[in-house]
Amino acid sequence: HTQLRGDQVIVVSNREPYIHEHGPDGIVVKRPASGLVTAVEPVMRACSGTWIAHGSGSADRDVVDRADRVGVPPGHQDYQLRRIWLTPEEEQGYYYGFANEGMWPLCHVAHVRPVFRESDWEAYKQVNQRFADAVVAEARSEDPVVLVQDYHFALLPAMIRAKLPQATILTFWHIPWPNPESFGICPWRREILQGMLGSTILGFHTRFHCKNFMETVDRYLEARIEDEHSTISFQDKETLVESYPISIEWPDEAVAAAWPPIAECRRRVSERLQLPAVVRLAVGIDRFDYTKGIIERLNAVERMLEKAPEWIGRFVFVQVAAPTRAALDEYRSFQERVERITERINSRFSRPGYQPIHLLAQHHEPEAVNELFRAADICVVTSLHDGMNLVCKEFVAARDDQQGVLVLSRFAGAAREMTEALIVNPYHVEETADALLRAALMPAAEQRERMASLRSTVREFNVFRWAGRMLSDAGRWRLRARVEARV
Ligand code: G6P
User: Which of 95, 90, 21, 31 is nearest to 58 (CA)?
Assistant: First the structure.
């Protein structure tokens, strides 16, 4: 992204890259479970600039603000973090309400009904305006490059554009975009689309989401759509709608060399969970979210043990489920259902010294996640709908021994790139159970072949490729705008 050298970069996301919490021995820093943060953080380390995010930790605000560099993890000091502190009412309406009870189920179409409250919408607008004001306050020129992240900020692009008409605004939508009929139930569909069209570039993970978005605009706004160039002109402003599949930072040799050996990871996990000596170990690592297909995957494990009872005692599934948005009923009752189903399956198949499912409903830091990935024989990603899903890419990156099988939902954006995985329809229990069996039996040579191919894809199409493509498209648009301004 050499075109942007010297330009100021400001990123806006709801989630902050590290969270300061009060611990018994002072402030501790936690890294949140968020695909967005996983992807954007390395990019910000590389381009410096300012990251504006919602302050969410329990540590005192003024302590965190005053000593903003306190406890910043090593290597993460290369950009400024500016936190926006929200009132409880703002957080309730904007984050829990409109973003996570409205937009999240609206865009995921995971059979959870979106909730639209007038008061949440008011809070959402108000908080978007507060973030827009912060961007304007941070801007050192008339034309900064602003990277707006995700469904928390649909209105932000037009709000920034109103104050900084020359800004280059790149908006990336980290979740799916549904078809016009599904999106059309949102009472504020026009406002949301108009807000997003304040962007210079609007990015989605796949062409399919771009197409859905363009059709949605076509249905509900008076805009000119140019399919050929993938642009939308609305009120004399043009927006490029493009797909940029997100990815992870590929671990370089020094990073990978510091990892504990595979056998050591396996030993530690077996010891911690008291696993029987000879087992196939499958892992699932998600936020505790109803879009991730956790129940479908448990049903598949149950079906597998039913179909192939020789695996009872020899197949263990570990599900890490990081608590998330737990203030919402939908999330709490989902968690309870998962717990009940786990108990039921365990009571059916447990034997002395053996339990088929281990549900770990706790936050795990990246090192602990990496240890599980390296210990596992199989990684299971069965999202019912997912923009991209980075867990599957992290699993592949962790396996420098070229072993391990990935079972991946066809409804995750990643399925389009990661075709050497065992691709399943998670709604189809039988098919998923068969894929688990096939994974458990896969010979080492076939694992190596598939894994080597997956690794070369993710290594090449890493997160710098994602950001680089977006920023170089932005660079071209800036040049063009400068030339046009001269005429
Ligand atoms: C998804 C969203 C992100 C969000 C993450 C974690 O990946 O696209 O924007 O940060 O989930 O959710 P949370 O609500 O905890 O930030």
Answer: 21
385: CB partners within 8 A, 6+ apart: 108, 109, 110, 176, 291, 411, 412
Could you tell me how many helices (H) and strands (E) the chain has, helices first? 18, 17
What would the pLDDT profile of 228-253 be if each residue is shown by its tens digit? 999 999 999 999 999 999 999 999 99
Spatial separation of the C-alpha atoms in residues 37 and 141, rounded to whole Å: 26
Q: Which helix (H) or strand (E) holds 65?
A: helix 61-66
Helix (H) or strand (E) holding 407: strand 405-409
Which among 150, 246, 292 is the best mutation to test ligand 1's pocket, defined by most ligand atoms within 8 Å of the CB?
A: 150
The answer to whether 361 and 323 are in contact (CB under 8 A) is yes
Lining ligand 1 with CB less than 6 A are: 14-15, 34-36, 150, 174-175, 287, 324-325
Give the burial class of 253: count Cβ atoms within 10 A of its Cβ; 0-12 exposed, 13-18 middle, 19 or more buried.
exposed
Place of tokens 């942007």: 4
Give bridge partners of residue 321 from the DSSP assignment: 286
Atom of ligand 1 at shortest distance to CA of 174? Answer: 8
pTM score, whole prediction: 0.94
**pLDDT value of residue 62:** 63
**Contact present, 381 and 388 (Cβ < 8 Å):** no
Query: What pLDDT does residue 4 have?
Result: 60
Cα 29 to ligand 1 centre (Å): 18
Query: Closest residue (by CA) to atom 16 of ligand 1?
Result: 15
Q: From edge to edge, which strands make up the β-sheet containing 224-226?
A: 80-84, 50-54, 9-13, 145-149, 168-172, 201-204, 237-243, 231-234, 224-226
**Cα 100 to averaged position of ligand 1 atoms, centre (Å):** 9
ipTM > 0.85, yes or no = yes
- Cα 437 to middle of ligand 1, angstroms: 32
Does residue 46 contact residue 127 with C-beta atoms inside 8 Å?
Answer: no
Distance 34 CA to ligand 1 centre (A): 5
Inter-residue contact 410 to 293 (CB < 8 Å): no
pLDDT of residue 277: 86
Supply the pLDDT for residue 1: 47
SS3 assignment for 9-46: EEEEECCCCCEEEEECCEEEEECCCCHHHHHHHHHHHH
In the predicted model, residues of the chain with pLDDT beneath 70 are: 1-5, 60-77
State how far the Cα of 105 lies from the Cα of 113, in Å rounded to an integer. Answer: 6
Q: Which residue has the tokens 């000593």?
A: 67
